[in-house]
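Illustration: Red chlorophyll catabolite reductase.
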Amino acid sequence: MARSLAMVAVHIHLGAFLLGTPGSFALVPPRPRLLSMASLLTAPSHVSSHGPAPLTSQSTSLSEAEALDLISDDAYAMDISSITEGSEKETYIGQGSGVNEGTGIGALSGFVQNIVGKILTRKNRPVYDKLWTIIEDDLLAMVKESVPELSPRRTWFSEPGSTPEPYTFATADGKCDGTVSCYKGGRIDWITTCKFFSNKLGFGNMRIDGWTNRDTRAPHMAVHLCIVFNVIFIYISLVPRANLLFDDEYNDYVYGTPKEALNGKQLNDLHIQCVEDKAFKQYVSKSHVVNAFMVAPTTLLYTIPYNKKNFNKVRDLSIGYVRTWLDMLAEEDGPLMKGVDSKETQAELLRLDVRTRQFCGRDPDTKNVVGIFGPEVTDKLVRTLWGDPDDNVWKSR
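Result:
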């Protein structure tokens, strides 16, 4: 809901599904909190001296008690009220979709807006359905084939012990509806697919987010796609789990080394490909919060006019990134396995992962999602994107 819900992710892009109105927002009550993105691998300097106790056990894996203690400090809490007031109007979704009054078709009168919304729905709904085949039939299918241990899990909308199944959500008037599904298994700690389409405003958003567990330092994966007017918005990234300023080996290996999944190309080659393709227009966020999250050097954040040729470009890029991610998940040695058997690395990964996965709590587009579905639905959507409701790490958030 990319910026988070509408991809919400870049703001459509990444936050996706976020929401939260400053001041009045209590979407996700402040709870034990996370590192700021800028801190990446190390705990923030302001962490209380009364924070987590030193790791003393000789075991190479963190116990549940140790893990919860590491993220119990206020530095790991979520605070929706920190979203800058008005910033939701500056997101790609906020500007063009009409979610906010005075922006996009939201600047039109009710009668005219209704007509324009119907026209856009007729035009964009088929594109939305086609884009969803990338998420569901290409990307998720690849993940299931590569990780046979993957199995469905329940969302935050369902009760403990209930049968895992996709959850469908909608606005009270039924003019905007969507679905979210969750899976877990192998080295994938949590993976979700989510989509929604507004028949009132004629735009749609979808995403797949894969969160890697601590058995490897392989990056996380995100592919967010949105259709607004006749333009596709994309956020495609493999999010690092290392501080790239200090870890040249990780940076070079993940983003600058030829990959079999890319037929010998590097992820950086795909980045250059988009930079040099005039059909792709780079999207530059006005939000310092969003820009701070753009830590992967080969993140693709673009708009591109919809046509068959450009659709295939987006599909190929999405498949290339996810194939590369899956190959890295399967590696048993090399830079991505360095230190994973130490408690120090496990602690660093835990803290970084929690903060990364909770980014949507600060993403301006979270407020756009709240504007569409309301705080209660948005809260559960955000939590579903974060992690497993049966995992105590996420229960404690």
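Reading the tokens back as a structure: The first helix runs from residue 64 to 70.
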